[in-house]
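ugh ok so i messed up the first submission bc i forgot one of the chains. this is the corrected input, ALL of the components this time, i swear. 545 residues overall. if the numbers dont match what u have on ur side tell me asap before i send this to the collaborators (the ones from the other lab, u know who)
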Amino acid sequence: MHPYTRIYMSIEKEIKRRRTFGVIAHPDAGKTTLTEKLLLFGGAIQEAGAVKNNKVKKGATSDFMEIERQRGISVATSVLAFEYHGTKINILDTPGHKDFAEDTFRTLTAVDSVIVVIDVAKGVEEQTEKLVEVCRMRNIPIIVFINKLDREGRDAFDLLDEIESKLQLRVTPLSFPIGMGYDFKGIYNEWEKNVNLFSGDNRKNIEETIEIEDLESKELDNLVGEKAANTLREELELVREVYPDFNQQEYLDGELQPVFFGSALNNFGVRELLDCFVEIAPTPRPKESDTRLVHPEEKDFSGFVFKIHANMDPKHRDRLAFVKIVSGTFERNSPYLHVRNGKKVKFSSPNAFFAEKKQIVDVSYPGDIVGLHDTGNFKIGDTLTQGEKMQYKGIPSFSPEHFKYVNNADPMKSKQLEKGLDQLMDEGVAQLFTLELNGRKVIGTVGALQFEVIQYRLEHEYGAKCSYENLNVHKACWVEAKDPKSEEFADFKRVKAKFLAKDKRDQLVFFADSAFTLQMTQSKYPNVKLHFVSEFESSNSKKKK
Ligand code: G4P
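and heres the new structure output, hopefully the right one now
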């Protein structure tokens, strides 16, 4: 056998056993609790409470100190990997707080599927809608987990209706609750055809499951009582009438979303979710680059940076760049091409993640995440390959929501300020724009909290001081001229000169001060397209390189 054939066979095996996904939820729905229970099942942690909650807590500490605390934790929880029945599972952490939405969106470019957690009492919430919309746009396979069934909540059919209408999903319940809250008796598992009885004892690790061959049998009445058994029979009949049958291909294509019910806190319904997940969830998926579709089974390594984490210790300016491996194997000390700057780089201590620990690895496979130490060469969206000149697509930059002028508050430290801003922007903390007219710098962020973070980190990590000045911008739009030489575009640039800026990639951006201005501008200049999202590798940025 040719040596490569043997390696290839093992790569294929490794790819097949990998599942890389993210848990998304509106804050407080139970993302951290569910993640923790999944890790418990994988034996990756021994006790509940081991996974730190990295949400921004409201309370005594000031917001940015809280963010710093959270930033420390989020290095540990960025990637949580564990083995379950021979499957290697990588969970990518996604902050639920809306001020970090952009972080979450970027992480979603690196997952192959997601589990959406919904609170049974609250139903579909604001962040759930936004995050699911991104997944839907990218056809990411979605499983829904309705959590907190131990509490009084909404009627299951109501919730399923809401998920269909608000999230525009096509659902099929694979489990169904028997009662709820005070009357919660357990769950009927359609996928495994068994009943799982709820004891309400959250110290119990795995609940007993009872096989039910025939729903009509008296056994069900004996288990949950005649009334509950009859209600369940009626409800399941309705489920079968109303919802489509589960079809794995439709799920993988993002056209059908299975739903599970449970209580993460009580470890209830979690094993069922995990067992179904490892069976149906996608293995690492192919990814589109600017030149072609790249398949995980390809021999040559390729991957992209979706997250950069700066060192918490200001004395060491190194950062950890998180790379998702798309194809081939990533090997320690092998030279790889950093496509954007055209240089070959070797990594002597790539980190792999296991539960909350990092360790140096020699080989990683598609679907895995490696953490690479970086002294400032990486930007989010960068591609690494074995030599091929291609750039992965699909890491968007969204129009920020908040804008402020940034001024240098210490003239002796202008170099430090520039470097600090530069690196923080590479990390994706915020976006920096330079006004065309006067060269003034504007910072745009998704959340208001980031301004404090930037000020604090500039001072503590770069020794620079900045101050802010308010600026009234409603949206920043990336400008695309159908014909850059046209009269219309020249007129647009002349009339709107005060509101034009360049982003860090030298793309032209228009600051609209209100929704009305935006509408007027669009109708006056129909051949100047205004985009709310900038793909890093749009045709504009390629030309500029
Ligand atoms: P998040 O990461 O999505 O923000 O949610 P997290 O897991 O932190 O859960 C939010 C709150 O909901 C926590 O309570 C958690 O204990 C609770 N919770 C999670 N799953 C369930 C469940 O199945 N049933 C019930 N009844 N509660 C659940 P907390 O009081 O805010 O925090 P903590 O002090 O318990 O950590």
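quick check: The mean pLDDT is 86. that seems consistent at least. The pocket of guanosine-5',3'-tetraphosphate is lined by residues 25, 27-33, 53, 55, 96, 147-148, 150-151, 263-266 (CB under 6 Å).
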